[in-house]
Amino acid sequence: MILEKIIVLDDEFIIRKSVEEHLRRRRYSVVSAGTIAEAESLLRRDHYDLVFADIHLPDGNGIDFLRQLAQQPDRPAVVIMTGQASIESAVECMRAGALDYLLKPFALSQIVMTLEKAEAFSQVVKVNHYLNQEQAQGSGLIGESPELVRLRTLISKVAPTDATVLINGENGTGKELVANELFKASARSQAPYIKVNCAAVSETLIESEFFGHEKGAFTGANERREGRFELAHHGTILLDEISEISPKVQAKLLRVLQEREFERVGGNKTIQVDVRVIATTNRNLQKSVDNGEFREDLYYRLNVFPLKVPALRERQGDPVLLAHRFLERACRHYGAKIRGFSDGAQQALAAYGWPGNVRELQNLVERAVILADGPVIKEDALGLPGSESRPRAVVAGHTSSEPVPATFTPVREPVRVVEPDNSALVSLDEMEKQHILRALERTSGNRTQAANLLKISIRTLRNKLNQYEIEDGSEIGREVEAA
Fold first, then answer.
1. In 3D, which of 323, 355, 353, 358 has the Cα closest to residue 341?
2. What CATH architecture is 146-310?
């Protein structure tokens, strides 16, 4: 229920009680007042969502009361009631900020309609307030590491220009967030910002998604439809996971970047657009070009200003900082009262390698808030690998009976893995590869089940298979057997 507490302000006892009883039957918390002074006293003591107010009151005018409330930042919505209606007073009330205007005597059904309008209005106000809070608290790139400071500097330099930007980074690092920061700081920030997830649109529909189509262009095209580039005219378009588009669409996209023009699918009219292009990818596009999977000329058109988003493991100190910010958001969302993390939990957050990057950290903190049974999140509540048996830590040469220091950040260098029968040096990449191979073996090569087992997306698994050049089930069998 968006509305909870309501004031009924009217000097006529019968009307006041009638409205009050009707609202109580609908399970609202209702108080009544016969004067403006009584209503003001109620508002000073508590917060109310809605006020039903008469115009003519013993100690003043309801419209003047409405104007006073309009000056308050956290004011309730106001519905004016009157037995002497006129067009002039109705206009005056609406200009003063009234939500609705009821003429006495009114049917109870009119109150129901007014309540529905007030519910919708209150929801919009609260959503806007929440979004403003998020913006005021800095919902952008969070972190103080040198890598993130450098990234912010590059964003501030390229954002005001119209240069095409290619954002590269691992899954979960915040590439789309970087794109949002570029848009907000650009000269086109008041123009459209259109996003296309290239990996989520099928190959048969991506061309229509980009450029639109004419009626009858293909089965199911029952009407003309503008594409994303057309909708982004004078604004910005974000091509998320650009590496996923087919060679045919790559050629057409190249033309748009070069000539700023295209035709809709099934059409012959050339459409001119003025669009700033931002693209993201989690692949090495230069390698894709070398393998013949991506057009070289398109790559150079996209790579005018490259930005590399650092992995979370490369951002020393940022995991703990981000964890506290995500904790605040999760506590607001779930109404939890958690003060922070224990020292052991913070050390575990700092020492973990974060293969899923910022997205993994955010999900982990949210889960920990849901499961928390105290005012502080402890290390075992995080559920990080190895957190249940941390007394002896051996990470990249660091050996101690104490937890890994919070200032220590693992790197992708050979590490010594402590196991009963194996103390050989193994790289993190090799460990990750063997972990994936074993998951595929357990699921008989079913990638979807393996991804679920590994708690990663199918796209991440596919990228890892490409990275480690794992082609088919026969190779999986050989790798597992060799391991």
1. 323
2. 3-Layer(aba) Sandwich (3.40)
